[in-house]
């Protein structure tokens, strides 16, 4: 495990912003940290980086205590938008960051190249578009070839093209074996690029599994007449209004059974919950 | 060292650094030489200074006193603004978050900022000295005075200048960390440096204990040290304490401001 937390908790007064969260991120995976705004994602991530001290519980990042130089030097992060000096160019901002990380400044050019910012490297940061700022944030996170990349809402504020660029970038990093912890409230983004997800709601981790497991099994939806007769014929089926739901993938066998019993089959289609439906179910968000 | 290098790079390229240093140099030239020169050559009001005092204030051998006398109040205020901006802006820009997740310990990151600010402030004092030397030699040459370069005593004045500058830097750093932003830190700092202590001195003429207190407040201690090493004729310069006592108070303030700011920075959550 590259990140583990055990009953990690952060309270502000009586309010638990993060409440006994136990999660784990495996080496080489893209882990989606999913939750509505204000669910506790950023506070959890800040605790993993040592910016916020937990009230109770424990966390290990690459086997180290969060926030220690040994942990931080192996982690690249972008938290709630990039924090750079507006009067410096993108290149100079990365040089400052490289000096702090003890990374040779020659790596700066490679990082700029990796996020496709070479053409704008000499421009002042304050003149960057939001997408360019986010990419510079990723470039800073990549300096020193970190073992773990933590990206907190990296597509926040980006237009669709910028979001697609960021997804492509994360995919490319994942393809190179980079471990990524990606926090987001955008379900499509997580569904597309993450291997496993943790869902946090009201400070509690309500689920942690692969996207496939989270979405559950595919069910068959059958519309037939008479529906009651079909319901009796198909064992384990459940009636939902004028349709049946069946946990069965052999649609042909089911249809044959119904037709032989003189049931008129009007529609048979597979149904699988989207991550969005699962998410709303778990978090109570709408 | 990486933290100092990083901070130095960003302070060096920060326009605010050079604007503030430039403003200070213009002020020190204007109030130290231009106005005195004009007063000497036909001015009707010489601020109660005799011609001999004006000449003495502009002599190259008195450059040390010229440098130190500006720092207790106006120079100090500029240094405080620079330090408060350097620290406080990082909260608004989000650069503290980037700094503290880059790798170094919080105490190292803070030491890097303090080290770089220290270098900038030493540069400011050095530039002030050089500009004052240049101006005083120019005036002396124009007026045809016999002049000589400052003696070894100048190091005492420069040392005092650096200690005063260090105190105001520490004060600015402290305010920047406490207020977690540049605006309030600068506002409070300027209020203190230029208004509050002067008001207290006014009250002090009515209340003895307040008068005693004003002598050892940050600005008061700075003014007393400046007065003890020959600075005179500028707002904020005092002669109520010995140089050693004033220097000890200033060292105490530097330790308190820097220590408290570092402790807060290390212990406080960055949210």
Automatic annotation (TrEMBL), chain A:
GO MF, one example: ATP hydrolysis activity
InterPro entries to which the protein is assigned, alphabetical: AAA+_ATPase, ABC_transporter-like_ATP-bd, ABC_transporter-like_CS, P-loop_NTPase
Alphabetical UniProt keywords: ATP-binding, Nucleotide-binding, Transport
Keyword ATP-binding (UniProt): yes
Start and end residues of each ABC transporter domain: 3-227
Keyword Lipid metabolism: no
PROSITE patterns: ABC_TRANSPORTER_1, ABC_TRANSPORTER_2
Family as reported in the entry's similarity comment: Belongs to the ABC transporter superfamily.
Protein name: ABC-2 type transport system ATP-binding protein
TrEMBL record, chain B:
Transmembrane segments: 12-35, 73-93, 114-137, 184-203, 246-264
Species classification: Bacteria, Bacillati, Actinomycetota, Actinomycetes, Pseudonocardiales
Protein name: ABC-type transport system involved in multi-copper enzyme maturation, permease component
Keyword terms of this UniProt record: Membrane, Transmembrane, Transmembrane helix
Organism of provenance: Lentzea albidocapillata subsp. violacea
